[in-house]
Structure prediction request, 392 residues.
Amino acid sequence: MSTSATSARPTRPARRGLGDRWAALPKPAKIVVWVLVALLVYALPLLNPPILSTPDSDFGSVMFTVASYALVALGLNIVLGYAGLLDLGYVGFYAIGAYTVAVFGSLHGKVPFVLLIVLAVCISTASGLLLGAPTLRVRGDYLAIVTLGFGEIVRLVFLNTEWLNAARGITNVPRPPSLDLFDVPQLQWSGFTATVDLGTQSTFLKFGLLDGIPYYWLALTVIIVVLVADVLLQASRVGRAWEATREDEEAAELNGVPTFRYKLLAFAMGAFIGGLSGALYAARTGVVNPETFIIQLSMLFLAAVVIGGQGNRWGVLLGAVVVAYLPERFREFAEFRVLAFGLLLLALANFRPQGLLPPRRARRAKAAAQELEELEHSGAASGDTKEGGIRA
Prediction:
């Protein structure tokens, strides 16, 4: 009779990923890294790197567009990624913020710019509460349909209301107050050789029509403030309530979480950030028009969150870069941009369904599934070995 012994399965050493290495860094080192990254991002349109620069578009204006999309994506991520509410009409809040600045700053008033921003975020937040109060009692596809209708209704109201200048739109939208502190030269590249171009300079905090770099700096500063608030909010009781509501609303209700109240709060905060981004957009362009805020813009905002990884603030920022920057970088392939975007979504759905940077819960779930599969495989192999030994 022959016997067989099963050797113990060797345990694989735990791999230290980038997140683990970052967590192991001391706090002062993390602060230094964040400061250096922030300075690099602020200086990006001045450095004008040849690989990242957009030869067919003004790089500063493109960077402002990317920052605007990133801010919108952060707001939509609160609604979709944290609270699990599918909002297909997010462009409505974006449009309300832009029109508030245009109406009270140019068409029917001359309100100072700082107060215009306050008005824009207050009115867009109020619109989020008015929309959410009657509609958040429905879920899933019904909520998506209602919000889709909201985005289109807002555009049609702006298009057909004479008091809002109807289809003509509004011009001469006020810009942020300028300080004109000092001039900053940009770099010009010849191959990989950089020279300082004193003829092309950006005036720090001078908000004019042609130079988009000061607007990019302003939007980037707002993004940093929103990111800090986002980090604190997600780690708070509110963030945990949103996560519980997203995962299982019935179970959250049974455990004492007032889900409707927290969903309404998520809607209001998303509307706040959307209106803020719309106000910055109106101040940059100086013109608002109803046909700018079409429903396809909502789809792009949603695509930025889904592509980046809903629920991960850094992922949605990356998704905003993909959606807003890549079409401008490859403008020479304008005829194929839509096809390339569709192929990218198709590849992402097959190979990275959780997004480019999925949240931790998705990574933990994937790791647990792989571990369970390995245990089942090793158990089946052990059973086959024992059965073979008994037969022998």
Observations:
- The domain at 56-177+211-369 is CATH 1.10.3470 (ABC transporter involved in vitamin B12 uptake, BtuC).
- The longest helix spans residues 360-391.
